[in-house]
């Protein structure tokens, strides 16, 4: 009996720590006390442990045993974790999306930014098939304006996007580059917008790439959708 109580107390302590990690990881990252990845890993591992310990607590409660404060907190944390995971929707294990899979826009300036030193910013060709399966709706924007005007419009819309910072406008290459920062964890993703002539009109392509992790829970694809929608809303329609 004593050993069973000790095991229960140990599990309750682990559950308590897991719950604390789920709740404090995002908070510490949001306050920028810890790096984004540290806060995220606290949330991820804490969430997984919280789910397991919460389930064990439910089994124990069904058998008439005490649930414990730690496992009660773990149950709350597990609910938050599961809700966040399912709310993300797209869980494809890629973190680089573009509106042009055949010829993705290239970064010209992002490699010089802090945190990108020595990183390969080329688009991984292996990602194309995954994107076709999950995000076939991503598309370029056709604007009834010459490239110079289209670049200006692309820059203006990028500057208005929430949590974006425009870092470079290269009119020679017809590109606008930006950094998007997530609100809670503070992850920084790189964005490049490319404008090319298409007869008397212009074609605008977008690419969004995470700096961290392998999957992005659909963040980059949703960012492209939001930018394309904003650009289409304010751009003069092009006639085919």
Describe, in plain words, how this protein is organized in 3D.
The chain is α+β, with helices and mostly antiparallel strands and 240 residues long. The protein has two domains: 2-88; 96-234, Alpha-D-Glucose-1,6-Bisphosphate, Chain A, domain 4 (2-Layer Sandwich), CATH 3.30.530. It has six helices and six strands, in the order H-H-H-E-H-E-H-E-E-E-E-H. Helix 1 (2-30) crosses helix 3, helix 2 crosses helix 3 (69-88) and helix 5 (147-160) crosses helix 6 (219-234). Strands 1, 2, 3, 4, 5 and 6 form a six-stranded antiparallel sheet that branches.
Structural features:
alpha+beta; 48% helix; elongated; Alpha-D-Glucose-1,6-Bisphosphate, Chain A, domain 4; 240 residues; disordered C terminus; 6 helices
Give the helix/strand layout.
Blueprint lengths: L1 H29 L5 H27 L6 H20 L7 E3 L28 H8 L6 E3 L3 H14 L3 E7 L4 E7 L6 E11 L2 E10 L8 H16 L6
Antiparallel strand pairs: 1-6, 2-6, 3-4, 4-5, 5-6
Question: How many structural domains in the coordinates?
Answer: 2
Q: How many individual β-strands? A: 6
Biggest β-sheet description: 6 strands, antiparallel
Assigned CATH architecture of the largest domain = 2-Layer Sandwich
What is the subunit arrangement here?
single chain
Helix content: 40-55%
Please tell me the overall pLDDT: 88
For the record, give the distance between the C-alpha atoms at the N and C termini, rounded to a whole number. Answer: 79 Å
CATH domain class name of the largest domain = Alpha Beta
Order of helices and strands: HHHEHEHEEEEH
Radius of gyration: 23 Å
Q: Number of helical runs?
A: 6
Strand content: 15-25%
The coarse silhouette is elongated
